[in-house]
Amino acid sequence: MMHMTFYWGKKVTLLFDFWRTDSWTSYAVTLLACFIFALFYQYMEDRRQRFRIISANFRRNYPPPPSAALNAPLLYTFPTVGGKWNSARFATAIVFGINSAIGYMLMLAVMSFNGGVFVAIVLGLAIGYLLFRIGDEDDVSVDNPCACA
User: Fold this and answer.
1) Which end of the chain has fewer CB atoms within 10 angstroms, the N or the C?
2) What are the transmembrane regions (predicted)?
């Protein structure tokens, strides 16, 4: 039976049928794994932001030639070096995909409604933010001032 309210106990099934805990040792290892995945999520988010900054700086240093925009204003051309398609942009997209997958897995783990799993993930996210992302406020440029974008 799946719980629909928070509960505290050592018996939990997490994400997969084979990931079941029935002892305090297996439960502690599961909580440690949740904590580490949450830390890793924050680390990957920091890497993604840094790739994004590198990509933006790379684009500013190599503006696309103005003749391409004048010749075909309605057609999108694939710019060469320094345009939208550079290695930093691809790295940002790959890290975004990995980070999204980890984030959804953490969300599904919290949806097990086990209090220990919830606390382990929230602590992992908070400590990961403290370790990896506390200085990001100065580095990240905001493309859109709208909070919902």
Assistant:
1) N
2) 24-44, 90-107, 113-132
